[in-house]
Amino acid sequence: MHASSRSIVTNQSGPHEDLSRRVARALAHPLRKPVADHTRTAFEAASEWLEARPGMPLVLDAGCGVGLSTRRLAVRFPDHAVIGVDRSESRLSREHGPLPDNALLVRADLVDFWRLALAAGWRPARHYLLYPNPYPKASHLKMRWQGHPVFPVILALGGRLELRSNWRLYVEEFALATTQATGRPAEMEPHAPAGDFLTPFEQKYHASGQALWRLVVTLPHAPELVPGTVVGGEP
């Protein structure tokens, strides 16, 4: 397969100089914006689905796009409950065949969904962030997950967190932010899918000859990382 995918262009020469300050601010001042009603409703439905599968470890596919990665993860981990979350109804409604019985696609705002999951005491065994929008302009740091106020919530959920990107700097920043927030070493590495692609983006970038990168870190379930979080209550 041949593909043409433009490389990421940025005006940064290295990790953003404001990254550390933004992480410190997120740790000291948890996000308090109200949770959207549609995401609360979607989360309640997802919780009922998960409760109907007692004993099955949870896999979160955050920003699952068209849901192919959710399907593939469900096949890869048949004894896990796999939940893919994306905000786009258009992406989620694309036809890619039936979902495996152990998979669920949810339309929701990720920022709110993560906060509800942490407050409800969810403990994902695996948590995937596959090729998030890199927002490569330096002025867009706050839109990258490592620069967003919700970043401590992502880490506090715990489990085996895996980030993949075709932008090395994104993964490098995420690693720095993770170590700052948790004190745990987090290192990036080249990623060679060897034909085992989880997302269409991964396949397209690889076919275009772009280098792929990933970070894998195992984190404890640590709601205390987000002051004010009440497990089983409201974020």
Provide structural commentary.
With 235 residues, the protein is α/β, with parallel strands linked by helices. Helices cover 33% and strands 16% of the residues. The chain has 8 helices and 7 strands. Strand 1 (58-62), helix 3 (68-76) and strand 2 (81-86) form a beta-alpha-beta unit. The longest helix has 15 residues, at 37-51. The relative contact order is 0.19. The mean pLDDT is 93.
Give a quick set of tags describing it:
235 residues; alpha/beta; 8 helices; 16% strand
Number of helical elements = 8
**Quaternary organisation:** single chain
Shape: globular
Order of helices and strands: HHEHEHEHEHEHEHE
Helix content range: 25-40%
Please state the CA-atom Rg, rounded to the nearest Å: 17 Å
Largest sheet: 7 strands, mixed
- The share of residues in extended strands comes to 15-25%
| Counted beta strands | 7
Q: Give the N-terminus to C-terminus distance in angstroms.
A: 45 Å
SS class: alpha/beta
Sheet with the most strands: spatial strand order: 3-2-1-4-5-7-6
Mean pLDDT: 93
